[in-house]
Amino acid sequence: MLTLHDVQAGYGRTTILHGINIEVRSGEVVTIVGANGAGKTTTLRTIAGLVRPSAGRITFEGEEIGRLSPHEVVARGITLIPEGRQLFPFMSVRDNLRMGAYTPHARARMEQTMEEVLELFPRVRERLDQHAGSLSGGEQQMVAIARGMMARPKLLMFDEPSLGLAPIIVSQVFDVVERIVQTGVTVLLVEQNVFRTLSIADRGYVLENGEITMSDSGSALLRDDHVRRAYLGI
Ligand code: ATP
Predict the structure, then answer these.
(1) What is the pLDDT of residue 62?
(2) Which PROSITE patterns does the record associate with it (predicted)?
(3) How far does residue 124's CA lie from ligand 1's centre (Å)?
(4) N or C: fewer beta carbons within 10 Å in the chain?
(5) pLDDT in tens, 121-131
(6) Ligand 1 pocket: which of 20, 22, 32, 40 to mutate (most atoms within 8 A of CB)
(7) What residue's CA is closest to ligand 1, atom 27?
(8) E-assigned strands of 107-226?
(9) Is the CA virtual torsion 137, 51, 148, 191 positive or negative?
(10) How many Å lie between the centroid of ligand 1 and the Cα of residue 80?
(11) What is the pLDDT of residues 7-60, one digit of tens each?
(12) Complex ipTM over 0.85
C-alpha cells in the first residue's frame, strides 16, 4: 500500500532521514520505534507531504506521492493525526470534526461519515456543541482521532496519541486504534508506549539516528534483546 524507498529528508541543510525503507501493507498496523529525535515525526511528516524528501521515492497504491502537497496526500487517502492534537480550541467539537472533511470526496459524505465516526466515539458525541478547548486531554485526543477519520482515510498515521494522558485514558486510545483497524483502515503508529504498541502491531521498524536498524513482526521485536534494553527498559 505505502512504500518508502531510500527516502532522505530533513530541514534546511540538516538531513534527518538517511535513506529509509518502510513498507505498510493494506490492513496492517505498523509501528516505528525510536528514541527522541530519531526522526519518527519527520518520517510521518514526510509521508504526509509536510516535509519534502530530498531523495528516494514514496509510493502509495502504486502512485508516486513524494512531490504532492499535503492536501493532495490527504485526497489520496492518507491522514496524519499530529502530535499535540492541534485542535481549534475556540471552535465547537462539531466544527473541528467538519474541518477534517475538507477534501471534496470527504465533504460530499460529511454527515454520513460523522455518524459513522461518532459510533466509534460515544463520548465525543456527547460533547459536540462544546468548545474543543474546554475538553480534557483525553477527550481532545479522541476528537483529534475522530477528526482524522472524517477525511475517510485508507491509511491513518498517529504521532504519539497517548502523550501526556493518564494510564486509563491511554488504554482507551489503544482500544480506539484497534477498533479503527477493524473498520478496515490501515494504521502507521508512532508511540512512546512501546510495549503496548508492539503488542498490537503486525510489524515494526526501529529507527535510530535517521536509519532503519531493524524490522520484524511486533511479537519478534518484543522478544528482541536490543529492543527490550533500549526501548522497554527491561
Ligand atoms: P520525538 O519523539 O522527540 O518527537 P522524533 O523521533 O519524532 O522524536 P523528530 O521530531 O522527527 O524526531 O526530530 C528529528 C530531528 O529533527 C531532531 O533533531 C529535531 O531537532 C529535528 N527537527 C524536527 N523538526 C525540525 C524543524 N522544523 N526544523 C529543524 N529541525 C527539526
Answers:
(1) 95
(2) ABC_TRANSPORTER_1 (PS00211), ABC_TRANSPORTER_2 (PS50893)
(3) 31
(4) C
(5) 888 999 999 99
(6) 40
(7) 11
(8) 155-159, 186-190, 203-208, 211-217
(9) negative
(10) 16
(11) 999 999 999 999 999 999 999 999 999 988 999 999 999 999 999 999 999 999
(12) yes
